[in-house]
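Why does residue order matter? Because the sequence determines the fold. Keep that principle in mind as you read this record.
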Amino acid sequence: MTRARCKRRAFTLIEVLLALALLAGVMGGALGLLSDLTRRQDHIRTHSERSLDGGALVDRLERALQSSYAQNAAGEAGVRGDDHSIRVMHRGVIGHAEATGGDRLTIEMHWSETDRVVTGTFSGDGVDSASEPLARRVERLRFRYFHGARWRSSFDSVARGELPSAIEISIWFEPAINAAPETRTPDAGFDDVLFPDDASDLPTRSPDRVRIMVVPDAPGASWEVGG
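Structure:
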């Protein structure tokens, strides 16, 4: 009687295999959920870091442009740049993090295609020149300068004799891993018309951040993008 009862209570090999399969399925689902949560956290952290970096970069440049000038006493251009870098001379304004010295200050921004880093260099009267990374993992940075009813890929305020009416900054961060591809919608051939040698090296997706900054002391008070 005892031996027969033991036989009825024992698990068969099929039952053991089914239990192991169910356990493996549950563990696989739990690991998949954990992996998905980790990816989401990484995506949120990356997006937050990029938003902070991009915002700080744009804000610093915009603050400098609020008090920029076309030429200093030595004849140097107050605003000079190309599509990858820009230098702005400006007056010190109370409340600026960079304005710890005299009245004349300079901010330079440069994007390195090799390091994919945007570096800012700050100098001026009574201020030791210092450089710091402003944004990392930047796939592409582009500056454009609005002057004479068109956008230009470079500008020199001494050569032009005045400040640009506006400056545009576009930032493409490196795509996230496994990110879905995004297609950039052409602006009616706008880039191709104004920059025939510039549009080819741009990413094919829309920039992560774009800001057009009006220069207050520029002579052209009224302007229109694409005019």
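Residues 60 and 97 are 9 Å apart (CA to CA).
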